[in-house]
Amino acid sequence: MGAGAATLGFGNMLRPVVAEDLRDKDRQVLCIWLDGGMSQLESWDPKPNTQFGGPFRAIPTSVPGIHVSELLPKTAQQMHHLAILRSVHTQDNSHSAGVARINRGDPKERGVVYPYLGSAVAKLMGPTKTGLPPYVWVKPGSGGFKTQDAGFLGPSYGALALGDAKPPANLLPHPSLTSADYQLRQELRTRFNERFGKRRFNNEMAADTSVYDIAQTLMRRMDLFDESKVPAKDVVRYGSHELGRHLLMGRRLIEAGVRFVKVNSYHWDSHGDHFNSSDCLHRQFDQPFAALIEDLADRSLLDNVLVIVLSEFGRTPRINSHCGRDHWPEAWSVAMAGCGIQRGAVVGATNALGTFVEGPEHDIGHLFHTWFQALGIPKEHMEYINQDQPLPVAHDDFSAISELLS
């Protein structure tokens, strides 16, 4: 789908040969979005025994000298595969502004709506050789084809959302329909679309055609949704809770050949009763995340899969009157692992109280450049063409964080 759509003017790369080379590498991304704001102090950057440190200890990890919160004991044993950036400083302390800015890489205002990271990767790298959709979003709640992530790239680069990790509704034909009748119907639909498109081509029609193509591929891969094929030991290791099931689906989609998988978890906005909710939420994240990293490493997939864990911001060091932590973009952490990323590394630091970054600050634009470089996209080709207008893929005043790159 990616290569075909590029010929139709959805914001082509300046050098199509670069995109072809990237497709051959088959690098992939698994992004874990912890919606609401994960607390850096209860995860990647603990400050025990300080004014704002909270009740939880810091524990050693598999890398000598690096400590994380005691709420992540299983993840601590995978630290030799991970990199943590503790010097993230972003611009927005509201969900409505922060979610969009973080997902789009904070580009300068160009008068267009920029794509989210998943849509950008789908555009820049296209689908893998499996033909599965390039961008799949595993999320609680409803599913469907979500076009809003694509921005100016056009709706074809939207996300196929699997609500509660279930297949799209009505994916399979009615049992009474024979395969021959089904094939005839598809041929008829294709002919009508071609006839209609000769005079009325637009992005929405191209997206509609793409959705049908995606459905055809998924119909041949219904095994991905068959829970009976999941080993019982994997269910235990990842956990039967929502995030565990969804991260296990994320791993299976990566193994099947999806280019970009995003897994969402909600309810991280802990303005009240923060420490009890952290004890629950961070442990629910810890179990499947550690299993995911262990599995990708054991399967030699970390060499080709970039794993990212982030939110729209962190949480305040100061504890409010409701025993909660509020929104804090000034100093927080992002964790990552996999292809192109330094392993067993901590980059950047906050001060002793965790209130502000000490040393260089890094915004989301730095991270976008880092991730694209880790995926093998040459920085001189990190540019879209949108209706003859060249557009950088992230904030063009920022650059990759060299300490994070292997």
UniProtKB/TrEMBL annotation:
So which domain of life are we looking at? Answer: Bacteria
- Please name one Pfam family that this protein belongs to: DUF1501
Quote the PANTHER family the UniProt record gives. Answer: BLL7424 PROTEIN, DUF1501 DOMAIN-CONTAINING PROTEIN
Name of this protein: DUF1501 domain-containing protein
